[in-house]
Amino acid sequence: MDFLEDVDESALEGAELLSESDQFAIYAVGGDTYLLLQRHEGTPWTALRMSGDGIFRIGGLVVDAMRHVYRDVAAQLSPVRRR
Predict the structure, then answer these.
(1) Cα separation of 40 and 43, whole Å?
(2) Strands 33-38 and 46-51
(3) What's the pLDDT band for 73 if we cut at 50, 70, 90?
């Protein structure tokens, strides 16, 4: 896995866009290599370059982190806690 600073948009020519949101995108760049790109308008674009295996492993970690965040938010919104 590599961290890429200041990714130029032209470097993505020929890459396949797999998914995107308003600030993030995932590109397949060939050779079982993927870029998780942060493309925030006010800053230089940055990316993590990783293998397909890395995508699966990081995906599992992100799901675990989302569960943790959800539990914290749900606990704060619980009717029992709001009393």
Answers:
(1) 6
(2) antiparallel
(3) confident
